[in-house]
Design goal:
The complex is a heterodimer of chains A (about 450) and B (about 230).
Chain A: H1 6-73, E1 80-85, E2 91-94, E3 108-114, E4 123-131, E5 137-143, H2 145-195, H3 211-258, H4 265-297, E6 305-308, H5 309-326, E7 329-334, E8 339-342, H6 344-361, E9 366-375, E10 378-384, H7 417-427, E11 430-436, E12 441-447
Parallel strand pairs in A: 7-9
Antiparallel strand pairs in A: 1-2, 1-5, 3-4, 4-5, 6-8, 9-10, 10-12, 11-12
Chain B: E1 4-8, H1 12-24, E2 28-32, H2 35-43, E3 49-53, H3 61-70, E4 77-81, H4 85-94, E5 99-102, H5 107-123, E6 129-132, E7 135-138, E8 143-146, E9 149-151, H6 155-166, E10 172-173, H7 174-182, H8 192-204, E11 213-216, E12 220-223
Parallel strand pairs in B: 1-2, 1-3, 3-4, 4-5
Antiparallel strand pairs in B: 6-7, 7-8, 8-9, 10-12, 11-12
Helix pairs in contact in B: 2-3
Classes of the chains: A alpha+beta (about 450), B alpha/beta (about 230).
C-alpha cells in the first residue's frame, strides 16, 4: 500500500540512502576512536613499563613487586593488569591468576581474554610481556573494558540514530505523500469532473506559487484554451444548424408543395427549380465552410508557390467586371503589383470574395479600387468601396462565420465570405485590416515580407 | 457504336443515379463497388471512359488510377471526390486523371464533362478556324465574324467563345468555364459567368439572327447552329 505511491517509494529510497550513509559515517568514527583509544592505552602501558623498569633497576625484584602492589592499590579505574612471576613460574605480585600460555615473555603487544584474581569473569586485556634481567617475567596491561563500554555506547547511539531517523523518515514520508496525494487528487478530481461534462471546473490553486500551483495554473490555462475552442466550435455548429435550417426548410416546403397534384405543371416546375436553388445555396455554404476549415488547419501549405498578386487581382477584376457593371460599380486596379509565397487558388478566392462583397454591398456607388502594392513593410492587397461601410464595433464580428449585419440581411450571401478571407490571411501569415474608406469599407491584406529574399543570388 | 462507361463507386445510390442518367443518354454502363473489382474491369479493356471515386474500399481511387496508367492505358478517367476541389484536384490530376468532379455534383455537370473527355482526342489536331453555322472564329487573327458582320470581341470574350465553339453541340457548365478560362476551382457566389455569357450573347446573336448560344436549364450553356 505504502509503496504504491511514487512519493513513498522516493522517501523509502531516501531513507535507505540516509541509513547507509549514517552507518558509514558512524563506523568510520567508531574505528578512528578505537584506534585512538588503543594507541593511548599502549602509550600508558609503555610509560608504566619504563617506570617499573626503573624500580627494578634501583630496588631489585622486591622493589618491583612493591611498586606493582602500590600501583594496583592506587588504581582508581580498576583497569590495570600486572603479573610478576619468578623463574619457576611462581606469582610474586599482580592481579592475574595465571600466565597466559599463548603469550610467552617477549611476545610484545597482544590482546587476550584473561582471568583476573579480583574478578569472576574473564576480561579482555591488552598487554605486553617480557623477561627481566634476573630471569623473572613481567606482564603489564590494561583491561579493555573501557573500550568495550565505548563500543557498546557507540553501537547503541548508532542504533538509536538509525531508529529515530527511520521513524522520522517514515513519518515525514507519510505526511509528504499525503500532501502530494491531496494535490494530485485535486487535479485528478478536476479532470474527472471535466470528463463528466463540468467543463467550467478548474484545478484549485493554493496560492503558494509552488510546483503544484504552477502545474495547476498551466493546466487551467490549457483548459481555458480548450474551452474557448470548444465554444467556438459549438458556436459554429449552432450557426451552421441555424443558418442551414432556413434554406433546408424552404427546400422542404418547395418540394412538399410540388407534390400537390392539383397544381399546374408550370407551377410545379417553378417550385422544383426554387428547391434546387435552395439546395445549391446549402451546398455552397458547405463548400465555403469546408474551405474555411481547411485554410484554418493550414491544409494546402505544401502547395505554396510564388504568386503574382497583381495578375491574380487583374484576373478577378476581369471575371467580375461585367457583373459589377450591372450593379453600377466600376472595378479599377491600381498599385505597382507584388508577389508573395502562397496558395494561388485560395488567394484568388479571397480576392474574389472581397470584390464580390464590394459589388454586393455598395451597388451604384461608383468605383471599387483593387490595389496591389509592395510597400516597405510587405505586399498589400486593398479592396476599397464607397458603400455604407462597416461600423468600427462590427469590424471584428463580421469575420466570424455566418455573421451578417442587420442592414445587409436582405441581400444575398451566407456570411462566409470574410471568414474565408480571414482564414486565408491567417494561413499566409497576413494581417487582415478593416478600415474606413470615408465613405465606404477598405479591406487590406498585409503580407509580411519573407524572411529571406525569394530569389537568392547564386554564389559562384 | 455504343460508348461504354465504367463506374467505380462504392456508394450504391450514387452509382445507380449516375448509371441511370448515362444509360438514358445512350451509354452502356458497367459498375464496380470496390477498387479491386474496378481495376479488374478497367484493365479488361473495352471501356471508353472511367468514372472513379476517390475513396473506395479494398483499393482506393488513386491506387486504381495509378495501376490503370501503369498498365499503359490512356482511357479518360473522371475522378469523383467528396473532398475540397482546391487541393484534391491537383493530386488527382497528378496521378493521371483527366478531369475531376467534387461531390455533390449534378448529373448534367458529370454528363457535360464525360462528353468532353470522350471527344478530347479529336481536339488535339491544330485548328485555325472554328465554325458554328454562320459564325466563324479565326484563331490566328483572333477575329470573329457572323455572316458578313465583323464582331469586336474582348480578350476574355474571345476565349469564352473559343471554349464554347470547341465544344460545339455539347453542354459547357459554369464551373467548366471558370476552370477553363480562369483556372478557378471555387464557386463565386454571384452569377458572374451568366453575365459574361449575356454580354457575349449580345455581340454574337444580333436581333434578326438565329440565337447560337443557348442556355441549358440547370446545367450551363451550349453553342449550336441546329434549330
Amino acid at each position: 500500500m505504502f509503496l504504491r505511491s511514487a512519493t513513498s517509494r522516493l522517501i523509502a529510497l531516501h531513507l535507505a540512502l540516509v541509513a547507509v550513509s549514517a552507518a558509514i559515517v558512524l563506523s568510520s568514527v567508531y574505528f578512528t576512536m578505537r584506534s585512538v583509544i588503543d594507541s593511548e592505552v599502549r602509550e600508558v602501558v609503555e610509560a608504566e613499563i619504563r617506570g617499573l623498569n626503573d624500580d627494578y633497576a634501583k630496588q631489585g625484584i622486591a622493589g618491583l613487586a612493591r611498586a606493582i602492589e602500590r600501583r594496583l592499590a592506587g588504581d582508581s579505574k580498576n583497569d590495570a593488569v600486572y603479573l610478576l612471576e619468578d623463574r619457576q613460574g611462581g606469582r610474586i605480585a599482580g592481579n592475574l591468576a595465571k600466565w597466559p600460555s599463548a603469550a610467552p615473555p617477549g611476545t610484545g603487544w597482544f590482546e587476550l581474554e584473561l582471568y583476573r584474581t579480583d574478578q569472576e569473569r574473564p576480561a579482555i586485556v591488552s598487554a605486553a610481556s617480557f623477561r627481566l634481567v634476573g630471569g623473572e617475567r613481567l606482564l603489564v596491561g590494561r583491561d579493555a573494558q573501557a573500550r568495550t563500554a565505548f563500543d557498546r555506547t557507540l553501537v547503541r547511539a548508532l542504533g538509536w540514530a538509525l531508529g529515530v531517523s527511520t521513524i522520522l523518515a517514515f513519518t515525514s514520508g507519510w505526511l509528504l505523500s499525503r500532501v502530494v496525494d491531496r494535490r494530485i487528487g485535486d487535479i485528478v478530481g478536476t479532470a474527472e469532473k471535466i470528463m463528466r461534462g463540468e467543463m467550467a471546473r478548474r484545478v484549485p490553486v493554493r496560492g503558494g506559487g509552488d510546483e503544484f500551483d504552477r502545474l495547476a495554473e498551466t493546466l487551467n490555462r490549457m483548459l481555458d484554451r480548450i474551452e474557448t475552442l470548444v465554444d467556438d466550435l459549438r458556436m459554429v455548429t449552432d450557426s451552421v444548424a441555424h443558418d442551414l435550417r432556413s434554406p433546408l426548410t424552404r427546400l422542404h416546403a418547395h418540394l412538399d408543395a410540388s407534390l400537390d397534384e392539383s397544381i399546374a405543371p408550370e407551377e410545379r416546375q417553378r417550385l422544383i427549380e426554387r428547391a434546387l436553388g435552395e439546395a445549391g445555396d446549402v451546398l455552397r455554404s458547405f463548400t465555403a465552410l469546408m474551405e474555411i476549415a481547411r485554410a484554418e488547419a493550414g491544409v494546402g501549405r505544401d502547395q505554396f508557390e510564388t504568386v503574382d498578386l497583381g495578375q491574380l487581382a487583374s484576373d478577378v477584376i476581369d471575371l467580375y467586371t461585367p457583373a459589377a457593371e450591372e450593379n453600377g460599380v466600376a472595378l479599377k486596379r491600381s498599385g505597382d503589383g507584388a508577389s508573395v509565397n502562397g496558395h494561388p487558388q485560395l488567394l484568388a478566392n479571397a480576392i474574389a470574395n472581397l470584390v464580390e462583397n464590394a459589388i454586393r454591398h455598395a451597388p451604384g456607388t461608383g468605383e471599387v479600387i483593387v490595389d496591389v502594392s509592395s510597400g516597405p513593410i510587405g505586399a498589400t492587397i486593398t479592396v476599397a468601396d464607397h458603400g455604407p461601410g462597416v461600423q468600427p464595433e462590427d469590424r471584428s464580428r463580421i469575420l466570424d462565420r455566418f455573421v451578417r449585419l442587420d442592414n445587409s440581411r436582405s441581400r444575398p450571401g451566407a456570411g462566409l465570405g470574410l471568414p474565408l478571407v480571414s482564414a486565408v490571411a491567417r494561413m499566409h501569415g497576413a494581417e487582415l485590416d478593416l478600415g474606413d474608406n470615408a465613405p465606404g469599407l477598405r479591406v487590406t491584406l498585409l503580407f509580411a515580407p519573407p524572411l529571406y529574399p525569394q530569389s537568392t543570388t547564386r554564389l559562384t | 457504336m455504343t460508348r461504354r462507361i465504367l463506374i467505380i463507386e462504392d456508394d450504391a445510390e450514387t452509382a445507380a443515379y449516375v448509371r441511370k442518367g448515362l444509360e438514358e443518354c445512350g451509354f452502356s454502363v458497367e459498375t464496380a463497388a470496390n477498387g479491386r473489382d474496378g481495376l479488374f474491369l478497367a484493365t479488361d479493356g473495352g471501356v471508353d471512359a472511367i468514372i472513379l471515386d476517390r475513396m473506395l474500399p479494398e483499393l482506393d481511387g488513386l491506387s486504381v488510377l495509378k495501376a490503370v496508367r501503369a498498365a499503359g492505358m490512356t482511357v479518360p478517367v473522371l475522378m469523383l471526390t467528396a473532398m475540397s476541389a482546391v487541393d484534391e484536384r491537383v493530386r488527382g490530376l497528378h496521378a493521371g486523371a483527366d478531369d475531376y468532379l467534387v461531390k455533390p455534383f449534378s448529373f448534367d455537370e458529370l454528363h457535360a464533362r464525360i462528353e468532353t473527355l470522350l471527344r478530347r482526342p479529336h481536339e488535339t489536331r491544330e485548328e485555325t478556324r472554328l465554325v458554328c453555322g454562320d459564325l466563324e472564329l479565326d484563331l490566328l487573327t483572333r477575329s470573329a465574324r457572323r455572316a458578313s458582320r465583323e464582331i469586336d470581341l474582348q480578350h476574355r470574350e474571345f476565349q469564352m467563345l473559343e471554349y464554347l465553339m470547341r465544344r460545339k453541340g455539347r453542354v459547357v457548365t459554369r464551373t467548366m468555364l471558370l476552370e477553363g478560362l480562369w483556372d478557378y476551382r471555387f464557386d463565386p457566389q454571384t452569377n458572374v459567368i451568366d453575365v459574361h455569357i449575356s454580354h457575349l450573347r449580345k455581340k454574337i446573336d444580333g436581333t434578326n439572327e438565329l440565337p447560337l448560344i443557348r442556355t441549358i436549364r440547370g446545367s450551363g450553356y451550349m453553342i449550336s447552329a441546329d434549330a
